[in-house]
Amino acid sequence: MKRELALEFARVTEAAALAAQKWVGRGDKNLADGAAVEAMRNVLNRIKIDGEIVIGEGEIDEAPMLYIGEKVGLKYNPEKIEEFREDELSAVDIAVDPIEGTRMTAQGQPNAIAVLAAAQRGTFLKAPDMYMEKLVVGPEAKGAIDLDKSLEDNIRSVAKALKKDVKDMMIVVLDKPRHKKAMEQIRDLGAKLYALPDGDVAGSILTSIVDSDVDMLYGIGGAPEGVISAAIIKVLGGDMQGRLLLRSDVKGSDDKNDKISADEKRRCDEVGVEVGKKLLLDDLVKTDEIIFSATGITSGDLLEGVKRKGNIARTQTLVVRGSSKTVRYINSVHNLEYKDIYLEKLLKD
Length: 349
Prior knowledge:
Distance between the termini: 37 Å
Oligomer: single chain
Shape: globular
Radius of gyration: 20 Å
């Protein structure tokens, strides 16, 4: 992919974060998400790409979300704001989470981010929107995990690879009722538990950056977030395994969950993915040619959140290009009076 796309995609997540900031602490996660989606879509449609959303927030009938299969880029901009040649457009698949942590945004809690990953066409697993069991480690523990083994075995294996005592391990788990047993096991082993309320993409990244104490992430979360996590983990040199799970396996069997699970199974069959099968990192993402961008919405372990005074706003964005393995933190100051008109209504107080 063209080098300049890294900055273009940074602008996409910056716009989503700026739009979401208006709704931080206001208690309505749907309005926050809607604003971030609209901003993200508008900026994507001003970039010289022939893009397709392969990991998004739903199907086409769930618009205005950035839906799976949606075409984005200058080619699909209804306003035709700029002339272009077809050979100028980069064909890319895009995975997005306009707000990872909608509840945290609504409640004014830390660690909410806007996220995007892009890669060559056909290289992301087209995972349905369902649950995924995930195990993530950084580069020094690459090859030390196996999702078919017990959590205890994996913790001990990773500790050995890192040349650490188990008691010195820091393990991220989402603070959900379904993880009660896993959290008890971690504490019983004497390891340190970092229970995040939400945000397994941010948690995954923390396993693989140099200024983090996190050694491992384990848990059951969304499959879309799993693919986005796999993209950045692949670029950073870490390791990850996943396993798609039906809703009834996670939430229990009843009429509603069984109906949803039947639809999940059908969609997995359509894309040729086996439910319950261990997926390696190369199964989730087939290339290193990835551009990843995340912008902080609320301040957290990974990024500073949006800071705004009047029409001046500051953002911090993490941008990584797979081809160079360079990790950049971009600190930007935005004068909102000079933002394009399509963002104006989203950014007004």
